[in-house]
Amino acid sequence: MRASDLAYERLRDDILSWRIAPGTPLSEIELAARLGVSRTPLRAALARLALEGLVDTSRGRTGIVPDVSAASVAELFELREALETQAARLAARRRDPAVFESLVADFARASDTLAASGIDAYYEVVARFDRAIDEAVGNPAFRIALDGVRTHLVRARRMAADKPARLLRAADEHRLICEAIRDGDEALASSATAVHLRASLTAILATLDARASQEGIR
Amino acid sequence: MRASDLAYERLRDDILSWRIAPGTPLSEIELAARLGVSRTPLRAALARLALEGLVDTSRGRTGIVPDVSAASVAELFELREALETQAARLAARRRDPAVFESLVADFARASDTLAASGIDAYYEVVARFDRAIDEAVGNPAFRIALDGVRTHLVRARRMAADKPARLLRAADEHRLICEAIRDGDEALASSATAVHLRASLTAILATLDARASQEGIR
DNA sequence: TCGTTCCGTTTTGTATACAAAACGATCCGA
DNA sequence: TCGGATCGTTTTGTATACAAAACGGAACGA
After folding, report:
1. pTM more than 0.90
2. N or C: which terminus of chain A has fewer CB atoms within 10 Å of its end residue's CB?
3. CA-wise closest residue to B87 among A6, A82, A100, A147
4. Phi–psi pair at A53, nearest 5 degrees
5. DSSP letters of A66-88?
6. Using the CB atom, is residue B41 less than 7 Å from strand C?
7. pLDDT tens digits for range A133-187
8. What element of type H or E holds B63?
9. Dihedral sign computed on CA atoms, order A90, B79, B136, B128
10. What residues of chain A have any CB closer than 8 angstroms to a CB in chain B?
């Protein structure tokens, strides 16, 4: 594996998992030393992250990790709604029914999965759902656009720290989407996706607000 | 200006204007010599272009300019429809009516503009339309996504070499979109955008087909 | 006390040298 | 004649050295 890829993946992982806090200056020299690569491949990694929006180079010379504000999450979801409602519509048009039938069952079992195997097991099912959508849409450019949005979503989700009650509702919403796609009902798939995204956004913003006021009390 | 930015802009311009033909191997050494920079900033430029999809690094080690196929254009328009129909909807919700009233007049005059000042003057109006949409939407993440799609569209459009008859129809379609946005009619703005995109795609694919069969005859 | 300017330090931007890997051509064998 | 392997050449990937620019602090003046 190339050193630049290694640096990219490590940095990306650090940012998405909040190991690097927003606002932290990303010094090339320091990071290169920490990751054990020279500055040249590290610069390439930083450039990739900057183009993905995970590093903000607009302020000053040194890149920093942008913070996750309520406004930025709301903007992200506006873009996400544009992409995912259309993706659901296209998926319903071109899907393999068996794939989504299987996902319907997975989401119906979500309560058990969550209780037995924890939150990561649930997110694994969601990841499978995303991959099924990508495959059904069958459009590389569309997939890349969706991936970009999902990347940023990971950060927002980790911050919001989804509560089990919300996850159970989300599983139900996902099940509805899968049923619509399985049945080839484009309009319903699109609408059900919109419903899910609005509910998710509301939940995340509520968590963010609660956290913000908690920080304020301190 | 940084050498890497210079190399990026020059290369990007060369690719978008078809001065570099699809399939051409992008040798770092040769390009660095031609642009008068060293390989380090040139590599950064190539990396940026690769992430934008203007350079394909998936095949072999040397990057090449991807070609514009009918399939890739159709895929691009699927993504474009997802973004622009939603952008039109959001723009209708938040617009400054005066801005789009002015654009309505511009597109109504398009026939004269085209006859008097040529095709570039018409595309300048379209660029103003795009900027008005961006401003009305007011969502940085959305704007970045739209910019990415528009970049690829430039290549497809240059290849298709729009005919005046099509441009006049396109101006009419744009006028309809602007009227809907001006009036705050979200549903109509979205639908009118979908109509315009489908017509544009059909025109581009027809030109591509004609060119393909012409190449076949040779 | 506040603002401004200058200088030292740090950090980024660029160039070049070297190492590694991949592609292509040629030669050998079946 | 065709397939495959090996070697040479070319190209990329990485490291390091140097130049330039920007930030921060201190000192000076108002």
Report:
1. yes
2. C
3. A82
4. 85, 10
5. PP--HHHHHHHHHHHHHHHHHHH
6. yes
7. 999 999 999 999 999 999 999 999 887 767 888 899 999 999 999 999 999 999 9
8. none
9. negative
10. 40, 43-44, 47-48, 51-53, 72, 75-76, 78-79, 81-83, 85-87, 90, 139-142, 144-145, 148, 152
